[in-house]
Here is the input.
Amino acid sequence: MSELRYNYLKDTWAVIAEERARRPHDYSTHVYEEYGDKSKCPFEPGNESKTPPEIFAIREPGTAPNTPGWKVRVIPNKYPAFRIENSDKADFYYIYDKKGGFGAHEVVIDTPDHYKHIQDFSIEELNYMYIAFRERIKSLYQDLRIKYVQVFKNHGKDAGKSLVHSHSQIIALSKIPKTPDTMIKQSRTYYQKKERCYLCDEIKVELLDGSRIVYENDHYLVYCPYASLYPFEVKIIPKEHSHDFTTVDGEALDKLSDATQQAVRRLHKSLVNPPFNMILYTVPPIRDNPEDPNYFYHIEKHFHWHIEILPRIAIHAGFELGTDYFINPTPPEDAAKFLREVIL
Amino acid sequence: MSELRYNYLKDTWAVIAEERARRPHDYSTHVYEEYGDKSKCPFEPGNESKTPPEIFAIREPGTAPNTPGWKVRVIPNKYPAFRIENSDKADFYYIYDKKGGFGAHEVVIDTPDHYKHIQDFSIEELNYMYIAFRERIKSLYQDLRIKYVQVFKNHGKDAGKSLVHSHSQIIALSKIPKTPDTMIKQSRTYYQKKERCYLCDEIKVELLDGSRIVYENDHYLVYCPYASLYPFEVKIIPKEHSHDFTTVDGEALDKLSDATQQAVRRLHKSLVNPPFNMILYTVPPIRDNPEDPNYFYHIEKHFHWHIEILPRIAIHAGFELGTDYFINPTPPEDAAKFLREVIL
Here is the structure.
């Protein structure tokens, strides 16, 4: 059973995931399963019985759950860091705070095609992926014990992907983790001072300045942020203020998939299939917060949902691990220029 | 000229290091220089002219600077992220805060021996390395513009090492970076409530509990922290409260080298030469702090210097990058047991 342990001095939490318990020699084992023989891949249509039963799928009409015919398929992670069965109880051990590993850990199999990766996806295929994210977030937030859902994709072995077949992951937690917590507090502070959304202001600056823009369509802006922590970091964001990703549908969904396709294909071509992590930040549900009753103060007005793509092309070393400052050897203005100039 | 850019939503700073400017194709180039032919290695005795002139060295009597005869040698980094010549001026760009890349970036060549790595170092050789750290920290803090010095070592390519010859790095900054800033605020809060040092309490718990201890000698405790963010994370800490690493000398220095040798050799043997980062946290000098005049309130009583060793054996993926929570697949109690049982 996994548990969260509070690291007091760094003010963050370790997830001690015993389900994944690893002995020293396990770390030298190659964990990236390529399945040259795709018939062995558990994410392959026809192999549905090799995974836990599906939670959600978009299917061809008339096909049964856990059989082929799906376009996108969501299943529980076989080696979950969090489980619904675990306790969410706060507890302690000597001077240390801890908490049960309550939550959920799901896998989105983005496509039935073993050989397709996100840079190959059509608009329709990207739509399926985003619909799966949307529907799972909505469903997980029905459980009042869930305070936050993190959706992410690991692309490439060096970004932490362990199975080659394209997939994303969804983790639901009984706490708002450190980074989104910081984002909420920072955007709330900005709103309290200025009555404006910070990211709306950032978008205005980027449109005015222009040097960091990679692509835009009617609904979305794709740019390399001014204070990019990662080289070739890319942000995808709705131009009009919107706090909740789960409202995206229809034309806005098509346009999000278009913006994603542009971002991912440009990175893929410019950096020659770089590993990257894709991270979705959307508003958490309003819950009671004993630490700060005003925690969610007008969150709908200052939280602006967005997606980050973080290429893993430079290794974070002792400086980054020790300080949480990030040396970025490529100015975002240069990165954006390279990405703009890619011919697709 | 490098600059710091404030990432408002994540409340941290990006170091845009133009001296290291990298175009897309640079990222696919192998940056780990092995120098099978050690005569080409710029860190080799006899090749002193291939590096900038030395800043500090421990030498055999009668040998001249920038010639062979050194035991440990400190030089400016050829590709610095920070420079003394840069401005430390706070500035802005539209809504963004920025700051000049003032600081220092030095390289400690730990040993003249091309083939020796930290797990091979004798007590005497470890002493030389620590004396170099100590003397450079003391010297850098003479400059009143310097607010913080971060000493770290990248061991192994996957920990960000770029030259095979054993070396460490020292970065001096005009700001206290995010992680040490959090540590100072957290330990100060603890002290204000309890009149006790947090890490002194942690040491007491660890000695009482025992399950996470790897090694101890008269002066130092080596253990896997309760809330380890990294699998096989190890902390080396003086058992008696001490805020300032630069006071370490004589027997305490020998014992620090002994504790380090034990920690590093046990990790090396248990995990088969894992890549790791080693990070030294020591008290920053007391400087005027306009944001909080009480920032340094009794810092000598609550800041407890220590060293972290963070093995890079599990890849941080989208979850860690997105949340700043860390999934650790090896409980520190198990890690400590493996490390204790190593026969050296």
Remarks:
- The mean pLDDT of chain B is 95.
- The longest strand of chain B covers residues 148-155.
- Chain B touches chain A through 93 residues (CB under 8 Å).
- Chain B has one domain: 3-341.
